[in-house]
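stage 2 :: seqdesign
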């Protein structure tokens, strides 16, 4: 029963953040909502499984996926949670503290809650302020607001970046 309550409470204790100050506000003010067509739990492993039409919302962030595993384990560190999403593709969006929107997608997205770190793999794409990046793997650190991308070891696909050089009308 304790494990069942732990898994059931997992959805409410996951902390998806964007920026350190905003992250604390989101944790306090906004519950994590996970909707899916199917949900199950692997109680011995403390893993919640969400399938088909998975939608995650938390504050200013959303993720859509075909499949999601929500892990809660002591060895994962302070927050003890890890989200592993897969889909064709998994879609991620968030509004940054400065008001800009980040849009990303990949076949797989892993989110380490304690580190505020997203690892996107498989046809990964990342977009902000009209600039775009695509790579086999993109790592986005929300707390430090950094992005790193790389090609897979056996891939011929290089990292591609498109920088928007046009300004909006009225900007200098």
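stage 2 :: out
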């Amino acid at each position: 029963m304790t494990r069942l309550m732990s898994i059931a409470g997992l959805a409410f204790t996951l902390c998806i953040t964007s920026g350190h100050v905003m992250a604390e506000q989101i944790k306090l003010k906004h519950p994590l909502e996970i909707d899916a067509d199917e949900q199950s739990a692997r109680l011995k492993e403390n893993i919640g499984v969400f399938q088909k039409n998975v939608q995650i919302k938390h504050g200013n962030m959303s993720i859509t996926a075909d499949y999601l595993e929500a892990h809660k384990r002591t060895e994962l560190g302070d927050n003890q949670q890890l989200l592993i999403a897969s889909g064709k593709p998994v879609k991620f969006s968030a509004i940054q503290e400065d008001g800009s929107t980040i849009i990303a997608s990949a076949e797989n997205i892993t989110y380490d809650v304690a580190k505020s770190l997203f690892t996107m793999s498989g046809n990964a794409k990342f977009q902000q302020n009209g600039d775009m990046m695509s790579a086999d793997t993109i790592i986005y650190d929300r707390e430090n607001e950094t992005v790193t991308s790389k090609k897979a070891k056996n891939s011929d696909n290089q990292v591609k970046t498109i920088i928007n050089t046009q300004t909006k009308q009225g900007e200098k």
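stage 3 :: structure notes
- The chain is about 15% helix and 50% strand.
- The two ends are 62 Å apart (CA to CA).
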